[in-house]
Amino acid sequence: MTADAHFAPGKVILLGEHGAVYGEPAIAAAISLGVTARTSPATRATFVPPATLKGAQGQALKTAVNRAFELTGRPAVRLELESTLPLSMGLGSSGALSVAVSRALLASTPSRSRLAKVDALALEMERTFHGTPSGLDHMTSNRGGIQYFVNRRPRALSPRRPFDIVVALVGERPSTKLTVQQLRARVQRWPTRYRRQLKEIGLLVKEGAQALSHGDLEALGDIMNVDHGILAGMGLSGSKTDDMVHQLRALGALGAKLTGAGGNGGAVIGLFTDASRAAKALTARHVHNFVSHFEREP
Ligand code: PMV
């Protein structure tokens, strides 16, 4: 095997986080930032972890890569990773790294079966990170574009009108695993009320998929606002994320919401027809942000 680089993108969830864990639909979109896995020939399977990753995160990464090595017969390669994605912010960094590593280790698989094999191996890695992932992150990373998940199966969704998503980062948040567990405890304690909210999130996702394919960005923005309200009502937002949602709306966003597991930190997204002015304004306020552009698939 010669030296080889395999890139996999991160993602934002446009609609449907948390509902997805309970089998409701969701819409996720691949972003330009991601993880690159590089392999080169070696005498045995060797992982060189990024020097910047220490402690629990470093250990979790080693466990996941070791699982992938085991499941692929410990190939004689040296594996290195490079990431442009902020970690643990709701942007699918573990999903992207699982897909990048899986692509690198399965590079010799025939192309007709590669998508499914990468899905399966990346899911095994994701399980070491999250326990019971919905699978949305790694499947979006593996396919790119905008993916509409119904019954946990992805289908490409092509937006009728182009749009921008501003991703604003508002600081640290708890792990997805912990936030999902804490919500599960509330769902178990008050099933009627919480299941009703999760079902409503599922309905919003369906309306959002229609709005996207009809090019009704105003409706999509409104749906994102309502979705954020439900997530906040279920205890998944806080003052930092709520404040950024309000800042984005004041900057002209058609809609804004937290994205990913939430928990008063991480990433907040805003929907715009053109986000350049809003992105500049956030940068002037020292808010770490970037823009992803989406348009109809050719
Ligand atoms: O914050 P992230 O990127 O780990 O996304 C979590 C999305 C959830 O719906 C909360 C969990 C899942 O497995 O889908």
Topology:
Blueprint: E1 4-15, E2 26-41, E3 46-48, H1 55-71, E4 77-83, H2 93-105, H3 111-130, H4 136-143, E5 146-150, E6 153-156, E7 163-169, H5 176-189, H6 191-214, H7 217-233, H8 239-250, E8 255-258, E9 267-272, H9 276-284, E10 289-294
Parallel strand pairs: 3-4
Antiparallel strand pairs: 1-2, 2-4, 2-5, 5-6, 7-9, 7-10, 8-9
Helix pairs in contact: 1-2, 1-3, 2-3, 2-4, 3-4, 5-6, 6-7
Radius of gyration: 19 Å
Q: What is the average of the pLDDT values?
A: 94
Strand tally:
10
Structural class: alpha+beta
Structure, explained:
This protein is of the alpha+beta class and 298 residues long. Helix content is 45%, strand content 23%. It is built from nine helices and ten strands. It has helices at residues 55-71, 93-105, 111-130, 136-143, 176-189, 191-214, 217-233, 239-250, 276-284, and strands at residues 4-15, 26-41, 46-48, 77-83, 146-150, 153-156, 163-169, 255-258, 267-272, 289-294. Helix 1 (55-71) links the parallel strand 3 (46-48) and strand 4 (77-83). Helix 1 (55-71) runs antiparallel to helix 3, helix 2 (93-105) packs across helix 4 (136-143) and helix 6 runs antiparallel to helix 7 (217-233). It is globular and about 55 Å long. The protein starts with a strand and ends with a strand. The model has no long low-confidence stretch (mean pLDDT 94). It binds (3R)-3-hydroxy-3-methyl-5-(phosphonooxy)pentanoic acid (PMV).
